[in-house]
Design a protein that fits this description.
single chain, TIM Barrel
Amino acid sequence: MTETNKRFPEGFLWGGATAANQMEGGFHEGNKGLNIADVLPGGKERLKVLSEPGFNFEIDHSKYTYPNHEGIDFYHRYKEDIALFAEMGFKAFRLSIAWTRIFPNGDELEPNEEGLAFYDRVFDELHKYNIEPVVTISHYEMPLNLVKEYGGWRSREVVTFFERYVNAIFNRYKDKVKYWMTFNEINSGLMMPIMGLGFSIQKEEDKYQPTFQAFHHQFVASSIAVKACHEIIPDAKIGCMIIFAPVYAFDSNPENQLYALQEERLFNYFCADVQVRGEYSPFIKRYFEQHNIDLKIEEGDLELLKENTVDYIGFSYYMSRTEKKHKTDEDKAHGNILSGIKNPFLNASDWGWEIDPAGLRVSLNKLYDRYGVPLFVVENGLGAYDKIEEDGSIQDDNRIDYLREHIAAMRDAINEDGVEMMGYTSWGCIDLVSASTGEMSKRYGYIYVDKHDDGSGTLDRKKKKSFFWYKDVIATNGENL
């Protein structure tokens, strides 16, 4: 590979990614209201509990722990953490705003000044080190009041509340934030409606109609946000954010090829088609007919979607997915959060997530070929157990190997395939609470946080071996991997 082909574009946004609900803590401070994340139990059974019909959105300390309540205490330690990010050379830091810090119940008429002031301080601290904030507006932390009183995104009223929220933050931070994303992993609502859409599916209820009506309300809300951002902060960029996992057919059997295509269309492209192209695709319209889905679309909605498309696509990439039409339980890749069947060519992480660096290059090509807009990998990383050695060091070579191979795949997509990329913010640049399991032991960071699954720990920060490796990657703009 030539020196030219080893380079990333000038101005490439290297950094790390987090979410307010997984790191901030201070869940009862600053007049913050309760959100969905505050009632999510900790432990490996988290997703199972959430997927059972009738989840009641109540805190029950007799049955569960709630690690999101303290997170890693970024609320009080943000200066220390941002200084560490700066030491690594971050150009960007992806974070989310907790909706309930700005509107504690979600339906107030006026925002909470304490919450607004907190993010002022965080953004000012980032700018002190010339780190660009990349802000997710809604990241799995819908106000609990909107869930209980309105039914989450089933309700059209929530669109109005979201519009009030985005106008408040755009006006407040118009001189501090240039990069925005609307809904984190919006397509996750297909598999985790509680976290993505703000409601649980009831036993007696047909899941299709409420799920896709809620999606429509989110698409309208996202377009309203795009419109407002372009008007209030004309030089800003605002994107969508999806999970992307390329779907491989298990073999060359045409039946399996077609099945993989259909699965990919629904999960990977449905939401992006609306947010990037501004319209529902023919595929999803047929899907609606097949499942008797009759969306309530108000006058002006379709025009709003068409006229206010996003500037770029942010996406998370952790794994690929392999599918065949007829599969047994024995075939399934049970550790893969996106299911599918076992891929015999791939190894897996400590949590069973299949590791496929080439799949990231495939993803970048598929997205760029389909949409032709800039791409931003805003989540990617290895959740793994970390061991503190006798000398106090953390030799996380497995994480370095994982990241090296994925960054190399991005570099090849840019230089060999012509893909336009804005940046890379690896997930959990500092250890935080896992979204899928509520564990601290599932660590992603370059920075170790002394906090454990049982709630014990000092919260002290410690640099891992990967900290120094990533610092060199950034300093050389990706040439030294």
